[in-house]
Amino acid sequence: MSTKAELACVYSALILADDDVAVTGEKIQTILKAASVDIEPYWPGLFAKALEGINVKDLITKIGSGVGSAPAGGAPAAAAGAAAEAPAAKEEKKKEEPEEESDDDMGFGLFD
Protein backbone atom coordinates (compact mmCIF):
# COMPACT_ATOMS: atom_id res chain seq x y z
CA MET A 1 0.00 0.00 0.00
CA SER A 2 2.81 2.44 0.82
CA THR A 3 4.25 2.24 -2.71
CA LYS A 4 0.93 3.38 -4.14
CA ALA A 5 0.75 6.22 -1.63
CA GLU A 6 4.33 7.30 -2.31
CA LEU A 7 3.81 7.33 -6.07
CA ALA A 8 0.56 9.23 -5.75
CA CYS A 9 2.23 11.90 -3.61
CA VAL A 10 5.23 12.14 -5.94
CA TYR A 11 3.01 12.60 -8.97
CA SER A 12 0.91 15.18 -7.12
CA ALA A 13 4.05 17.11 -6.13
CA LEU A 14 5.27 17.01 -9.73
CA ILE A 15 1.94 18.34 -10.97
CA LEU A 16 2.09 21.19 -8.47
CA ALA A 17 5.70 22.01 -9.34
CA ASP A 18 4.93 21.95 -13.06
CA ASP A 19 2.14 24.48 -12.53
CA ASP A 20 4.46 26.67 -10.38
CA VAL A 21 2.27 26.14 -7.33
CA ALA A 22 3.76 25.79 -3.85
CA VAL A 23 3.87 22.16 -2.74
CA THR A 24 1.86 21.86 0.47
CA GLY A 25 0.14 18.97 2.17
CA GLU A 26 -3.28 20.46 1.55
CA LYS A 27 -2.67 20.91 -2.16
CA ILE A 28 -1.31 17.39 -2.52
CA GLN A 29 -4.38 16.09 -0.71
CA THR A 30 -6.66 18.10 -3.03
CA ILE A 31 -5.07 16.56 -6.12
CA LEU A 32 -5.32 13.07 -4.62
CA LYS A 33 -9.01 13.56 -3.81
CA ALA A 34 -9.67 14.79 -7.35
CA ALA A 35 -7.95 11.67 -8.69
CA SER A 36 -9.93 9.42 -6.29
CA VAL A 37 -6.74 8.10 -4.69
CA ASP A 38 -7.24 6.89 -1.13
CA ILE A 39 -4.09 7.02 1.01
CA GLU A 40 -3.22 7.47 4.66
CA PRO A 41 -3.64 11.10 5.72
CA TYR A 42 -0.02 11.55 6.84
CA TRP A 43 1.56 11.02 3.38
CA PRO A 44 0.81 14.45 1.86
CA GLY A 45 2.26 16.20 4.89
CA LEU A 46 5.40 14.08 4.77
CA PHE A 47 6.03 14.88 1.12
CA ALA A 48 5.29 18.57 1.60
CA LYS A 49 7.74 18.69 4.52
CA ALA A 50 10.40 16.82 2.53
CA LEU A 51 10.09 19.22 -0.41
CA GLU A 52 9.99 22.34 1.75
CA GLY A 53 12.56 24.84 0.48
CA ILE A 54 13.49 22.71 -2.55
CA ASN A 55 12.99 23.81 -6.13
CA VAL A 56 11.54 20.62 -7.64
CA LYS A 57 12.10 21.74 -11.23
CA ASP A 58 15.80 22.33 -10.61
CA LEU A 59 16.03 19.00 -8.81
CA ILE A 60 14.57 17.16 -11.78
CA THR A 61 16.69 18.88 -14.41
CA LYS A 62 19.94 18.38 -12.50
CA ILE A 63 19.59 14.72 -11.58
CA GLY A 64 22.51 12.73 -12.91
CA SER A 65 24.15 15.68 -14.64
CA GLY A 66 26.50 16.57 -11.81
CA VAL A 67 25.57 20.22 -12.27
CA GLY A 68 24.02 20.48 -8.84
CA SER A 69 27.42 20.35 -7.12
CA ALA A 70 29.05 23.02 -9.31
CA PRO A 71 29.54 26.44 -7.74
CA ALA A 72 27.60 29.38 -9.14
CA GLY A 73 28.92 32.47 -10.91
CA GLY A 74 32.25 32.54 -12.73
CA ALA A 75 33.44 29.36 -11.03
CA PRO A 76 32.01 26.93 -13.64
CA ALA A 77 34.76 27.93 -16.06
CA ALA A 78 37.37 27.26 -13.39
CA ALA A 79 35.71 23.97 -12.54
CA ALA A 80 35.75 22.99 -16.22
CA GLY A 81 39.46 23.77 -16.39
CA ALA A 82 40.14 21.67 -13.32
CA ALA A 83 38.03 18.86 -14.76
CA ALA A 84 40.10 18.92 -17.94
CA GLU A 85 43.30 18.51 -15.91
CA ALA A 86 41.93 15.62 -13.86
CA PRO A 87 41.76 13.04 -16.70
CA ALA A 88 45.39 13.74 -17.61
CA ALA A 89 46.45 13.02 -14.03
CA LYS A 90 44.44 9.77 -14.01
CA GLU A 91 46.08 8.63 -17.24
CA GLU A 92 49.54 9.17 -15.75
CA LYS A 93 48.61 7.07 -12.71
CA LYS A 94 47.39 4.26 -14.91
CA LYS A 95 50.69 4.18 -16.80
CA GLU A 96 52.71 3.89 -13.58
CA GLU A 97 50.79 0.89 -12.24
CA PRO A 98 52.25 -2.51 -13.17
CA GLU A 99 49.97 -4.65 -15.27
CA GLU A 100 48.41 -7.60 -13.51
CA GLU A 101 48.33 -11.01 -15.08
CA SER A 102 44.95 -12.07 -16.35
CA ASP A 103 43.39 -15.51 -16.01
CA ASP A 104 43.77 -16.04 -19.75
CA ASP A 105 47.55 -16.05 -19.36
CA MET A 106 47.36 -18.88 -16.81
CA GLY A 107 45.44 -21.16 -19.11
CA PHE A 108 42.07 -21.19 -17.47
CA GLY A 109 38.96 -19.33 -18.36
CA LEU A 110 35.60 -18.72 -16.80
CA PHE A 111 33.87 -21.80 -18.23
CA ASP A 112 36.71 -24.34 -18.34
UniProtKB/TrEMBL annotation:
Pfam families: Ribosomal_60s (PF00428). CDD domains: Ribosomal_P1. The keyword Transferase does not apply. Residues 70-87 have a biased composition (Low complexity). One of its GO terms (molecular function) is structural constituent of ribosome. GO terms for cellular component: cytosolic large ribosomal subunit. Residues 69-112 are annotated as: Disordered. Plays an important role in the elongation step of protein synthesis. This is Large ribosomal subunit protein P1. It comes from Nasonia vitripennis (Parasitic wasp). The lineage of its organism: Eukaryota, Metazoa, Ecdysozoa, Arthropoda, Hexapoda. The gene is 100117550.
